[in-house]
Amino acid sequence: MRLFFLYSCFLIGLGTLGAQSDSLHFRYDTSGFYLNGKPFQIWSGEMHFQRIPRLYWRDRLMKAKAMGLNTVATYVFWNALEPQHGKWNFQEQNDLRAFIQEAKGVGLYVILRPGPYACAEWDFGGLPAWLLAKPGIRVRSTDPAYLQPALNYINQIAEIIRPLQVSRGGNILMVQVENEFGSYGKDPAYLLALRDAWRANEIDVPLSTSDGASKDMLTNGSIPGCVVGLDPGVNANDFATAKKYRPDVPAFCAEYYPGWLTHWGEPWARGDSAETLRDLEWLIKNKKSWNLYVLHGGTNFGFYAGANMGKAYQPDITSYDYDAPIREDGTLTPRYFAIRKLLQKYCANPLPDLPKNMVKVELHNIEVRPYSHWRNHLQTCIESDTLQTMEQLGQNFGLVLYRHTFQGARQGTLAAPGVHDYATVYLDGRYIGAFDRSQNQFELEIALADSLGQGHTLEILVEGMGRINYGRAMTDPKGMTKPLTLGGQAISGWQQCPVPLDGNYMDQLSPDDHHAGSPGQFFRGSFYLATLGDTYLDVSDWDKGYVWVNGHNLGRYWKRGPQQRLYCPAAFMRRGKNDIIVFDLHKIQAGALRGVLSLE
Q: Phi/psi zone of residue 297: left (φ > 0), alpha (ψ -120 to 50 degrees), beta?
């Protein structure tokens, strides 16, 4: 038996792509996969190219190959590619074609998971925020307001990947049609429309789905003629369930979890290495194909971290380290080497050598000083009787200011049941407290004396902390989604101002100390590098906000933890002077800031 596995691995486990110009025939029957007529077992690891600086793609892919894998899986996040309806961005980290070609150069096949919906702890599961500006839209359905943009997205992706399929000399083995739809709804017409769109676009490699190994998930989420991906599939019962409901196609483990995600306010999630090795060995011995979710997580740079919904709203941290075998900064963990040792056991040939470690640097005493305040940089505001959401204001991410002026004396409970997701509240310019959806904290007590005709100004600065990415609560607009009340009476008449914190906004920041004593400050400074290297910015002395280095948004920090360090790759820095901006919702004076070598 041992010799059989060694021989099989030599044939199917680590086969190279062969001549780069030759097309391959990848097919399946009910028992499994075949590559050019020979049994092929997929050993895959997932990483998301849009979460990894482009400069590091090759490093991470080479580490996948050196572990013993023959395939890499990746989601595609639609919202990063089409941030505004009809305006596409396939540059830098969004260059799908370049990533697939990079994987081919390393000697890896690709399982492409383009959505339209991805989940992946990514904002809105990868769906564009601008969809939510359409009243009553039903996402992930045959609603034309959703389906037409989704089909157009498929057309765009298909144009890129058509020549990259193994059937045409490329390295794409399989394309996923939809993701975990069985845990969302029941709409066979929608799933079939997606499947047919890929086929109409000449995507001729096998198509797949991914769902849990249960009756409801498989009957609602799988599609005739599409391979069944199991999330996860780790034992005979899981695969027997798939066979029961889709006997005409094979099943594979589309997501095996060596680690797990972490929300703000939770301890770091940890995986079980012994369980991982046991399950992988079972899959190998039983000739099942599998994909590690994730091999390497990367980072939710900018505003792309998503959220879940339990008893309360659960926003995800910025790091997507996931306790994965390859850490956020590319460091190889003991779990990586344990899996590598297991895979070598079933391979006749030695595994490739490991790439060199990335350079790391420490940064001491980075000095930043108060620079400006959000009130100094309000963009065009609109007046309306009722509240508008961020999406209705034409904004994808960042913050929105809601301002109202009261006349006369007022007191009572200020209630904001529709705050999505975190808000700092000011009366007459003075900070009085916060609303926090993640803590079900939606009320503040206020008392306003008679202003003698001058009025009292209420300001509520709302931060969107990530749209829900999984389950049936996904329609999750940001800003204020319900009326505010004071003493039970609805408040009407609002001024609403976008504070997007995007590139254009940040480029227009200018120094101004007019509101120097108020929370909500921008802090600015610089640091110098003689040698480039990765670092983690320790923000444990700060409260809640974001950091930019040379214009790159490193993501959100929050004193709540557990994450207190933001990954800053060398790819975002330069030798010599580097500019840094910190925006903090609560700090008035700068906190300590330094660069350290690890996430924890």
A: alpha
Cα–Cα distance measured from residue 232 to residue 253, given in angstroms and rounded to the nearest whole number: 6
CATH number for region 518-596:
2.60.120.260
Q: Which fold has domain 380-499?
A: Jelly Rolls (2.60.120)
Q: Do domains 2-345 and 518-596 have the same CATH topology?
A: no
Which positions of the chain have pLDDT values less than 50?
A: 1-16, 18-21
Residue 64: which of 87, 85, 86, 47 has the closest Cα?
Answer: 47
Chain centre distance of CA 35: 32
By annotation, the residues acting in catalysis are: 180, 255
Please give the model's pTM, rounded to 2 decimal places.
0.96
Q: Which CATH superfamily is domain 2-345 in?
A: Glycosidases (3.20.20.80)
| 402-459 confidence digits (pLDDT tens) | 999 998 888 899 999 999 999 999 999 999 999 999 999 999 999 888 766 688 999 9
CA distance 393 to 556: 22
Q: Please state the domain extents for the chain.
A: 2-345, 380-499, 518-596
**CA dihedral (122, 127, 133, 139) positive or negative:** negative
In this structure, the chain runs to a length of 600
DSSP string, 110-144: EEEE--S---TTBGGGG--GGGGGSTT--SSSS-H
Buried residues in 288-308 as b, exposed as e (16+ CB within 10 A): bbbbbbbbbbbbbbbbbbbbb
- Dihedral pair phi/psi, residue 56, rounded to 5°: -105, 0
Tokens 């209420």: give the residue: 458
CA-CA distance, 554 to 534, in Å (whole number)? 13
Distances (CA, A) of 194 to 138, 142, 154: 16, 10, 8
Helix axes 57-67, 96-106, angle to 10 degrees: 40
Q: What is the DSSP letter of 183?
A: G
